[in-house]
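## retry 2 of 3
previous attempt timed out at serialization; input unchanged, resubmitting
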Amino acid sequence: MKKVKLLILISVVMSLAFMSASCPIGSGSGSGVSEGVPYNITSNFAEDSSTGFLVQWHNETGVAAQTLQIVEEDGDWSDATEIEVTGVLWNPTKTPTDVGPYTARNIFRTEVTGLTPATKYQYRMGSPGYWSDTFYHLTSNGSFANFSFTVGADTQDDVFDQMKETFNAANTYDSDNRFFLVAGDISDYPQEDIDEFPNFLRAVNELTVKLPVVTTQGNHDTYLVNAGNRDGYVFGSAEVYNSFITSPDNGWARRTGQANAGPHRSDSYYFYYNEVLIIMLNTMATQNATGPSEPNHAAQRTWLEDVLKNDKDNNLSKYIIVVTHIPFFDGRGSSRGTPAGSDEGWLIANTRAAYGKIISDYDVDIVFFGHDHVYTRSNPIKFGTSTAIANVNFDTVSNGTIYSIAGSIGPKIYAFRNYPTVLSPNINKHLPDAWPTRTDSQSPGIFINIKVTAENLSVTVRRLNQNDNMDSYVVPAKQRGN
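## retry succeeded, writing output
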């Protein structure tokens, strides 16, 4: 078997997104496996998913270095390329607030590049006598080809049984499903329950079909100043989240050299899959390194525009998908924020103002949200010059962007209520365009299947244990790409 050429990049733990496969997973306070055997193993796509991917795992503090072996699926371990990876100590402290009784451990992270497109690999990590289970990774084509993927949101569970059942249903529905995108809030309150993230990995590992699960950070994945203050977020900080989940190093914080851009920093990232640009945007971002404050989206806004401009100038993608947590319009019609039902304080209006116009200017095809635990979908719309809460300006146009709240993978589900009458008349005027498609029959276990062809994105929304579609629509291909 001919060995593949590999380039290894090793760094301290960074943020967001992961895939996992069947391996021993330890609790938040320890490994739960034999000392020396890797645990909490995760991986993710590299920026170019046709030639690389990332792997991350935990081990005891006494294990300083381990080996990752990789070979094509039909190869033998004796022919495997061996990658030496050095661990970086994670010793949870009050940074910026108590992260809970997680034990100290070394975290190992490596990016593997130089792989062959459209090729399945097997890999494992550890050392002789202490190997992990075998994992598999399929690289993308590197050029356009039909494929499918699935979107969901808000797992928020202790054991994640609902998520497993939903993901299995999604795989049964579409045998060509390549990966899952999760729009934030994989955890509920990980500072209080240290087993939430390890249990999340364990649940994914139990899936009968092992596929990447790619996520962005939600508000429940973000630090709280204290456990009793449910809205006391420390924006931009995600030490626990980033210690269990990894992503490519192309996000706004690390790319622009922000202070504290390592394991404590919230970040965004993107990757290409068969000429589809997928951007995982972090609406919990801030330019402040630590401390409670409202989020400042300025640096991430510039990063987003740079990514989209580079894509457009170089004709790189045929479709663009953005996934983030906080929606641009309230999906619950509740009495949050001022005026009532309008924004939940720092959330919806600020996020829309930061990113709405850029997304319109660069003709993003679909934006998926989480947070509100309902399913909704907008008309294809474009924002004008104003995205303010009292004077939002957008129109329905045939080549506009679809905005959709993805319901809930997990057990939490809310009702879609009518907006209070105290809302601005301008907002009420646009509601038929903002959420013309919604369901009042919400239930847990919602997943969204997207089939990608040269002609269009075909979107189908399904509900666990239901045979009928909740919704379906088609987004025609725009004039971009090769």
